[in-house]
Amino acid sequence: MNKNRVQVKIGGATYTIVTEDDSQYVEDLADFLNDEIRSICNSNPSLSMTQAAVLVALDQLDACRKASASADNLRVQIKDYLEESARAKMEVEVARREVERLNREIADLRNRVNR
Question: pTM of the entire structure?
Fold first, then answer.
């Protein structure tokens, strides 16, 4: 895959990012990061740019870990649902066979009675 060189400005500094991702995606990430840093700096002007960046990084890492844990939980739930669905399909098949067997038995009994 081709590498893109994307220049972004974060916290007043310019960075060149080399990535396989779409340049617009990287620019959007940088804009989000820059907005978050600016927001923290505006709410607490005594923070340095580095301190604000660390706080944003911690906040985003927290969000990432929580999202990852949530995704893991959903995977477990989906796996449970799939297993439950497979069991239900097997039960339906067993019941269908039993219905067929009983229908044959009824037909046999009717034949015997009608003789």
Answer: 0.69
